[in-house]
Design brief:
61 residues, mainly alpha, 2 helices, transmembrane helix, transmembrane
Length: 61
């Protein structure tokens, strides 16, 4: 059962990362300056942090 939970968690994190990268690539797509890329990076960090915390509690309740 633990292996299934780990596989589910990995799948969720992979899907969130893929969707976030896809969505953030469209964010200000016409701009490629350093400030915009930095902002995209921090948005990705924030999204993945929230997703990781949510997935960490999956299976504890």
């Amino acid at each position: 059962m633990d292996l299934m939970l780990y596989a589910l968690k990995f799948g969720i994190l992979f899907a969130v990362a893929s969707a976030a990268i896809w969505g953030l690539s469209a964010f200000r797509a016409d701009r490629h300056d350093e400030k915009t890329n930095h902002l995209r990076g921090w948005f990705l960090v924030a999204i993945m942090t929230v997703a990781a915390i949510a997935v960490a509690f999956l299976g504890h309740f």
